[in-house]
Amino acid sequence: MSSLAVPPLAGVVVLDLTQIYNGPYATFLLAQAGATVIKIEPPDGEHLRRRPRSPGVAEPFAVLNANKKSIAMNLRQPGARRALLRMAAGADVIVENFAPGVMDRLGLDRDTLRQANPRLIIASSSGYGSTGPYRDYPAMDLTVQAMSGVMSVTGMPDGPPLKAGPAVCDFFAGVHLYGGIVTALYERARTGHAATVEVSMLSSVYPSLLSSLGLHRRGDRSCKRTGNRHGGLTMAPYNVYPAADGAIAILTVSDAHWTSLAQALDCEQWLADPRFATRAARIAHMDELDHELGRITGRMDRDRLFDLLVRHRVPCAPVRELDEVVHDPHLHATGMLKWVRHPAYGEVLAHGSPLVFDGHETPAYRPSPALGSDTRDILHDMFGMSADDIQALEADGAFGP
User: Fold this and answer.
1) Fewer CB in 10 Å around end: N or C, the chain?
2) pLDDT of residue 56
């Protein structure tokens, strides 16, 4: 199929006041779908930009802010707020992930934004939302992992609670925020109504706990953490097993999977073993099953074992190190990853969007811009401000401390 010239969100103008991970990821997805995303930062840059430019430390900023434009404005100054409201009049969406109340204190509350543009979609993300008893709690990924229960179900049964390695609360919220914004754009196109969209990190990550909630709902609260086993302890085998040169994740959802696994490993005696012959028996004898399976897998090379099990259609995957993942041929072949030269950060691993729109080309990669590099062009070309207007804003401190 030939590619369409116009990406799905072409023509949508987004004012991006977000910072760190969850908001910038939502607006990154919007930019990757073709929206014009204008990142508005304080004069010294947002928190992620200010990290030291040592190798790898600053890369998240470069990744999350590709294909955006940059304006530097001090929203504490009246002139900058007036400029933002003028921009809002010509935008489709404004997105922020400040703590609740910050926009109100800046004089950029919803009513003021609506007066500037009744068709403006106002989107926000925070740790716990703008209502409820937790509204004003400080929120970062770690604290929301703790509050949400994610940490309580992560780790070994006899060990302490652990955080998930990735920033799951931030990025789950970012995905939900993107979905909320696109839903609001659809509603506006259908009805003319411009919605206010709100996402909380706590609510966004909670559905991911559903398998772990099985134990709780059954009334068994004695084992909150299940290590690498299934959260509800309702599948066996379901674990990470040793290999001669690493580890491999193996699970069987059905008896057919179990039969295939036994046949692949030349262990068909397991099929007649009363401890393992049925799903219920395998769950009841989980420790013995894991021991027997690990005894076999531990003698085999990880990748050869993986190939063998894949040929037998057994759900499995090698436990890979990050270096293997960033060089993964599949992710590079599909365009999700590619190495690029960034003018500020050198070689970085650029990310594509997980969202693939059939018939549409992904927008050409543009590196994250230098702070404020597009300020005057955007104000003049996109929002019609004159050179005198911009000079007056500069004199009022709109672009500086």
Assistant:
1) N
2) 63
Q: What is the mean pLDDT of each run of 10 residues along the chain (401 residues)?
A: 74 97 97 97 92 72 96 95 96 97 96 97 97 96 96 92 96 98 98 97 95 70 78 90 98 96 97 96 96 98 98 98 96 95 91 91 90 94 93 89 76
CA dist 19 and 35 (Å) reads: 18
Q: Do 128 and 142 contact (CB within 8 A), yes or no?
A: no
Q: Which residues of 47-77 are buried (b: 16+ CB within 10 A; e: fewer)?
A: ebbeeeeeeeebbbbbbbbbbbbbbbbbbeb
Catalytic annotation present for 312 = no
- pLDDT for 3 equals 54
Does an H or E element contain 157, and which? none
Using CB atoms within 10 A of its CB, is residue 311 exposed (0-12), middle (13-18) or buried (19+)? exposed
Q: Decide: helix, strand or coil at residue 275.
A: coil
The domains located in the chain, with CATH, are: 13-207+327-395 (3.40.50.10540), 238-322 (3.30.1540.10)
**pTM for this predicted structure:** 0.93
User: Residue 58: what pLDDT?
Assistant: 72
Q: 223: part of which helix (H) or strand (E)?
A: none
How many whole angstroms separate alpha carbon 378 and alpha carbon 44?
19
Convert 232-269 to b/e letters by CB count within 10 Å (16 or more is b): bbebbbbbbbbbeebbbebbbeeeebbbbbbebbebee
Report the side by side order of strands in the sheet with 121-126.
69-72, 36-41, 13-16, 93-96, 121-126, 196-200
State the catalytic residue, choosing from 230, 257, 351, 360. Answer: 230
199 three-state secondary structure: strand
